[in-house]
Amino acid sequence: MRKAEHLRLAILAAQREGNRLLIQALKPHGITPSQAEVLRLLQQHSTLSLNGLGQLLVCESGTSPSRLVERVVAAGLVERRTDSGDRRYVHLTLTPEGERLATEVAGIEDSLYAALDAAGEGLDTDAMLTFLHNFIDPLPSGAALNKRLDQ
Q: Is the backbone of residue 63 left (phi > 0), alpha (psi -120 to 50) or beta?
């Protein structure tokens, strides 16, 4: 097996296992990892437009996460308000229940990050991040991640 193939498969396996752990931790709260990402972004930014949210999402491709937002609005976690000056512009904010759940999600994420920190103990994680950014930076997910890192 080529080293590049091994690396791609190892990254895929790590992503799947991390996502599996996150799904299990979020299941009692009735949300998916993608919905959790929306809640956390809104918690960090207070208010975002639909387009602004789409630019920051790593979990979804594209810049208009309408279906994802519809689900969290329907669940009573996010409030959607149309701008009074321009009806094409939508403001998204957390409801009190969404804020409470976003705080729970933050704790779940902290536990996952602690496991990742332990796995990286003594390793040059900066070199790993440099490698990954060399690959993802020109791609849509890299652009979303970099936008979040810039804030």
A: alpha
Q: How far apart are the first and last CA of the chain?
A: 39
- Residue 71 near residue 39 (C-beta atoms within 8 A): no
- 29 Cβ neighbours under 8 A, 6+ residues apart: 101, 104, 105
Estimate to the nearest angstrom the gap between the alpha carbon of 67 and the chain centroid.
15
List the one residue out of 8, 13, 22 whose CA is nearest residue 115: 22
pLDDT tens profile 29-49: 999 999 999 999 999 999 999
5-28 average pLDDT score = 95
Strand stretches in the chain, DSSP E: 47-49, 78-82, 90-94
Task: Report the distance separating Cα 43 and Cα 123, nearest Å.
Answer: 32
What distance in Å separates the CA atoms of residue 38 and residue 33, rounded to the nearest whole number? 9
137 within 8 A of 46, measured Cβ to Cβ: no
What amino acid is encoded at 42 in this protein? L
> Distance between CA atoms of 52 and 64, rounded to whole angstroms?
9
